[in-house]
Amino acid sequence: MSHTHARPPRPVASERTPLKARKVSFSWEDTPLHWVPGDPFAGHTINVLHLLLPAGERWFVHVYRQVLPLITDERLRADVIGFIGQEAMHSQAHDEVLPHLRELGLDPTPYTAQVDWLFEKLLGDRTLPPGRAPRWWLMERVAIIAAIEHYTAFLGDWVLNAGELDRRGADPTMLDLLRWHGAEEVEHRSVAFELFLHLDGGYRRRARTWATAFTALVFLWQRGARFFMENDPTLTAGRASFRDFHRSGRQGLLPSTGDMLRSVPRYLSRSYHPSQEGSTAQAVAYLAGSPAARAAAAAEEGA
């Protein structure tokens, strides 16, 4: 694949910051099943993160550990190592929500088993398309991660600014988990794309893997929201539809449909660079005030 671009992506230098994993922990005993009061659909749609991210981010870490020996830029290598640490912590934090959901009567195992299969088998090391070399498959997955990270950063920026969740009285512990995670996604939003540019950078691969990632995310998210709504023991005839998603987006409880659609041409632009989106300053400011991140920093200082 070509490493040339009609207009080279221009990173915003001021948006780069050293990355570190924050060893956070959360206490879930006081968090209700419907943690967005009066809107189980919005809460359950966001809850899909807890189903997708543990397996997905373990997969990110697995792929990136394989590419570390291929990185020749030392600054990028340091960023990737920091990214790996943060993603491993994200996976653990969301995984710890699942036992609480079971205690509340909603067992996510049928859905998470499918997600585990997707990342471990379908996207695993041995799933090599016929006639393709192992390096081709590794680069394909690096590009898929870059596309997914475009959307995790999009969601991170959204949740940092989702004031309607506060106005609706959303559970503060869940909000802190989401905003701690979202802030770190904004903080490291350039790493996956810069790694892709460093190792390959081909535009056709970027466009192709974006289509794969976007289609998979939409499919998995709507299935996850339907799973939660249909299996919520407190709801009768629970359902999830794109109309519900659009409604919650207009109310500010979920990302708006328009904002999501407008994110597509930005990623596919040849001049795209993730540092041009979101605000590192806002992310770092949240992390400085996050109850979980502050507790983690205090514990680290006292160790």
What series of H and E elements makes up the topology?
Answer: HHHHHHHHHHHHH
Share of helix among residues?
A: 55-70%
Terminal CA distance:
48 Å
> What is the averaged pLDDT score?
92
- Main β sheet profile: none
Low-confidence stretches: 1-6
Class derived from helix and strand content: mainly alpha
Global outline = globular
How many alpha or pi helices? 13
**Number of β-strand runs:** 0
Oligomer: single chain
Which percent band covers the strand fraction? under 5%
Q: What is the rounded Rg?
A: 19 Å
Write up what this structure looks like.
This protein is an all-alpha fold and 303 residues long. The chain contains 13 helices and no strands. The chain has helices at residues 40-67, 74-95, 98-103, 109-122, 134-160, 163-167, 172-187, 191-199, 203-231, 242-251, 257-268, 280-289, 291-302. Helix 1 packs antiparallel against helix 9 and helix 5 crosses helix 7 (172-187). The longest helix has 29 residues, at 203-231. The radius of gyration is 19 Å and the shape is globular.
Summarize the structure.
The chain is mostly helical and 303 residues long. The chain has helices at 40-67, 74-95, 98-103, 109-122, 134-160, 163-167, 172-187, 191-199, 203-231, 242-251, 257-268, 280-289, 291-302.
Secondary structure: elements and pairs:
Layout: H1 40-67, H2 74-95, H3 98-103, H4 109-122, H5 134-160, H6 163-167, H7 172-187, H8 191-199, H9 203-231, H10 242-251, H11 257-268, H12 280-289, H13 291-302
